[in-house]
Amino acid sequence: MKLFYLSALFLFIVPVVNAQEAYMVRSISFSGNKSFKSDNLRKIMLTKQSPAAFWRFTYSLGHMIGDSAQYLDPLVLNADLQRIRQFYFDNGFFFAQVDSSLDYNQKDRSVDITVEISEGPPAYVTAVNLHGIADSTSKFKELLKEKPALAMGDRYAAGHVDAEVQRVVALLQNDGYAYAGLDSSVVTPGMPGDTVPTRVDLYFYSGRQYRWGKLSVLPVDSGRIPFEKQIVLREMLFKPGDVYSQSKKTESEQRLYSLNMFELARITTPSKPPTADSLPGIISLRPRPKHEIQPELLMDDENNAFNFGGGLGYLHRDFLGDARLLSINTSLLLQSFQLVTFTSKVLSDTVTVGRIDATAQLTQPYFFSNATSLTWGVSFLVDKQMPYVQLVLRNKIRVSDRLADYTTAYLDWDVERAKVDSLQAIPLPLGLETPQFNSILSFTLQRDKTNDVFSPTSGFFNLLTIEEGGVLPNLIHSLFKHSDFPYAQYWKVMLLGKWFFSLNGDATNVFAMKTKFGYAQEYGTYQEDLNGPIPLNYRFFAGGSGSIRGWRTRELGNVTSPEYGGNTLFETNFEDRFHIAGDFGGVYFVDAGNLWNTYRQITLKTIAAATGFGLRYNTFFGPLRVDFGFRLYDPGAPPGHQFMFQRSGRDLIREMVVHFGILQAF
């Protein structure tokens, strides 16, 4: 029994003594690291330095803000040094040495850690040899030479070796060698001098080249698939007899998901290589419910402002067969509103800004080919702005076609009846006082190579839209001379480009840039009041959370009434997006641009500029954001008050604009 008590006492005392002897890590620094930044090396370590005393205090109050003190564990530190050695080895410093020195402060029980690094000479690839490649055709050899991830003259990096292996395996698997893979890799360093010459040998196994065999369509659960199997097979980018391609298999799965008909869509092949030359495929599906009614909580950034509201939607899958989708949606979105009472006249006040939309839409996913779809919709829109309310009844037809990877084309035809009522003393643009009957054709070419839908860290997005209004009404008027309905005649072009660049290795600091240019030009005559001006919902507007953020939405413009838009728009935006802690991030931004009636009015002194900062909170549906915008240069201000430095701090705070939004600003 005494032995038991002594053991228990020992187990109790040892942790207490260790806790008393623990040293708080005050700092972690590095010396000798010429090739890699200290911040990147610090992220490799499990040993962390303690936050400042203020953040330790706030953390002690409720564990909500800040962080706790971090203590030295010699075993963890030794493992960190080994991880840093391995990091250097994997990046071509085969002879790097890593050690540490500890500076203890007995007074406050803290320790400063210095990681001492002797990098040694770097290794450079002098030869890359690929072994075991079954396909020796000239076409495949050319593919092997295109954009290698590991090339002679590059500094050796294990990540580049892995990327080259993945590239070669993908080429083989897209050329019929479904079970190809890496057998082994050998890295042979030479004698070190100023550099270390290094040879890399990669040994692959290719196996047999396969073609697609029989394709079977089966439900995942017991039951049946409630539509014809041909609907599924036509979405495949391959057919029996084609050479097996892993990428086409993956793209075909994505096409099935894009139909919005399946909860699960998976194409599988035998786990072991068959002895025959054909490879059977099983398309496993779990259908979604045929009917679906959903209440919706809606948030978007349309019109460069944060809109919040709700709606109700109904979706009928496989409407009249052929995988058609019928959707009926109603929604109410508000930007600002007064307290609504039984006596309120929301549609006629000059404060409420919002939109009511009711839409019925039918989508035909297969229109002549599996790369083309057809959408037909009928909608009724109430667009309420401060100076006016617009009622639009629209019939819309859209044909979309996937021209190539990352490239999509859209052809839209809108036929609509639009009526605008002014709510303020500001007169409507000439010609809008009477309802219009408009026919508008537009063609859009879009190329999207960004790496993420919500928060891209690399890639680009380019868009070109060409629009024309008036051909159909003009034709009707020429055929029926007595027709007297007003309509718009104009042409319009818009260019949009967005680019994203990661500024560090883990993409926690991203530089983003956007440029947008648009121009619209009326043509025809106003004889007999037959031709009206450009419709309000097809004009350009400036200012707001996705535009020049020193101004509120639709408040910026080198025009008489920015609320009614203009015909020429130029915007450019720059953002530095960085990580703060956890799901929080921040941005610094600079915006420039303006709105004009014609391109002839564009001058350097009429281009407005804004700057500011913002916060981001990442959620599963994208980041929520708040931006604080300041007018860097205001061309509409009186002389002597146009530049930021010419205004007082009180004026800057008074003019500051706060924008709320969902997703990134662009």
List keywords for this structure.
single chain; 666 residues; alpha+beta; Ubiquitin-like (UB roll); 16-stranded antiparallel beta sheet; three-stranded mixed beta sheet; 10 helices; 27 strands; 42% strand; globular; disordered N terminus
Uncertain regions spanning at least 5 consecutive residues:
1-20, 338-344
Percent in helix: 10-25%
Write the CATH architecture name of the domain at 21-118: Roll
Largest sheet: 16 strands, antiparallel
Note down, in words, how this protein is organized.
The structure is a single chain. The longest helix has 20 residues, at 2-21. The protein has 666 residues and is an alpha+beta fold. The model is unreliable at 1-20 and 338-344 (pLDDT under 50). 17% of the residues lie in helices and 42% in strands. Among the domains are: 21-118, membrane protein fhac (Ubiquitin-like (UB roll)); 123-205, membrane protein fhac (Ubiquitin-like (UB roll), Roll), CATH 3.10.20; 211-287, membrane protein fhac (Ubiquitin-like (UB roll)). It is globular. The N and C termini lie far apart (72 Å). The strands form five sheets. Strands 10-11-12-13-14-15-16-17-18-20-21-23-24-25-26-27 form a 16-stranded antiparallel beta sheet. A three-stranded mixed beta sheet has the order 1-3-2, with helices on one face. The chain has a three-stranded mixed beta sheet with strand order 4-6-5.
